[in-house]
Design brief:
With 154 residues, the protein is mainly α. It has seven helices and four strands. The strands form two sheets. The chain has a two-stranded antiparallel sheet with strand order 1-2. A two-stranded antiparallel sheet has the order 3-4. α1 packs antiparallel against α2. It is globular.
Length: 154
């Protein structure tokens, strides 16, 4: 990637971090619907894709800008050990105990079905019953944001 493209991508990342931070504050102040805005930023940063030339291509910003980027493990036993995981492994973790979705699938489900970027009114396609998507997105955002700000130097 040339320096100009990298500079543009870095600015998008700084902007996404700012939007994510503000979305967290809004959710915490009672504006629960802003979890969808946070989910869209998580998708852009961590697990966005596009379909080009008859195949799915990863276009998430963080793996492009920071290929060595790592995040703390979610599972309690692994998290307590301070284990850091590369983005791909981190996204492949179970989203939450008892859910049959990994982190990537949950972010995408919220963005693609629950109103983060698209809406699908069919309940079977939505977020699994019994899960709290606003709380889940807030927790994931709180994990990502400090690591992201550290990587960006902000």
């Amino acid at each position: 990637m040339d320096e100009k493209s990298k500079k543009v991508l870095k600015q998008y990342t700084v902007d996404a971090a700012s939007i994510l931070k503000q979305s967290i504050l809004l959710v915490e102040s009672g504006e629960a619907s802003f979890y969808r805005v946070a989910a869209a930023q998580l998708r852009i940063l961590l697990c966005d894709t596009t379909f080009r030339h008859n195949r799915t291509e990863d276009i998430a910003v963080l793996p492009i800008l920071f290929p060595e980027f790592e995040l703390p493990a979610l599972a309690s036993t692994r998290a307590e050990s301070g284990l850091m995981l590369p983005i791909v492994e981190w996204l492949d973790q179970p989203a939450a105990p008892g859910l049959d979705l990994n982190v990537r699938q949950m972010i995408r489900r919220i963005c693609d079905v629950d109103g983060g970027a698209h809406i699908d009114p069919k309940p079977l396609k939505g977020v699994p019953p019994g899960s709290d998507p606003a709380r889940w997105i807030l927790e994931i955002s709180r994990i990502l944001l400090p690591e992201l700000e550290k990587a960006l130097g902000i």
